[in-house]
């Protein structure tokens, strides 16, 4: 007997479809086929494909942003340790359930064409940047320095993930090295 799929199963499958086929691949029928179930299972959890897409964006905000922030805040007692833990978590092996290391890039590409995805990316980027900026502020840097270093570190994370896909970077070692430089007075 087959286990009933949860909304998360559908969301993860939709992220895998997005990662391999772009936003146009987020279709109930093709995702159902990939999951080896009927489309009826999809409609049990989602009103329609736009509802699935919104659920994907909400899920990404929770899992890839808020849960990471919560983990970092609970796992390190000072700002330097939080930044170091954040670099470790952000460069850990990608979760294949969500399409692996290309998931973030696929979401950013989706945001180029979809206003809802663009708004979600902007909100999430703002939240991530604010968290990193707060850590630099806690280290005694002024607001301008904190904002600049947070932006540099976050931009490097995005870029290093892109480069690593082509074997041109090692985010797990490159990003902590950059952080070391940014932590110097």
Brief description of this entry?
It contains nine helices and no strands. The protein is mainly α.
Tell me the CATH architecture.
Answer: Orthogonal Bundle
User: Distance between the terminal alpha carbons, to the nearest Å?
Assistant: 61 Å
CATH top level is Mainly Alpha
Unreliable sequence segments:
none
Largest sheet data: none
Measured as a percent range, the helix fraction is: over 70%
Q: What do we call the CATH homologous superfamily?
A: Tetracycline Repressor, domain 2
Please work out how many helical segments DSSP would assign. Answer: 9
Q: Report the structural category.
A: mainly alpha
Give the topology.
Blueprint: H1 7-21, H2 28-35, H3 39-45, H4 49-75, H5 79-90, H6 103-111, H7 115-138, H8 143-165, H9 171-183
Structure overview:
The structure is a single chain. This protein is 75% helix and 0% strand. The chain is mainly alpha-helical. The protein has one domain (50-183): Orthogonal Bundle (Tetracycline Repressor, domain 2), CATH 1.10.357.10. The longest helix is centred in the middle third of the chain and has 27 residues, at 49-75. It is elongated, with a radius of gyration of 18 Å.
Salient structural properties:
single chain; 185 residues; mainly alpha; Tetracycline Repressor, domain 2; 9 helices
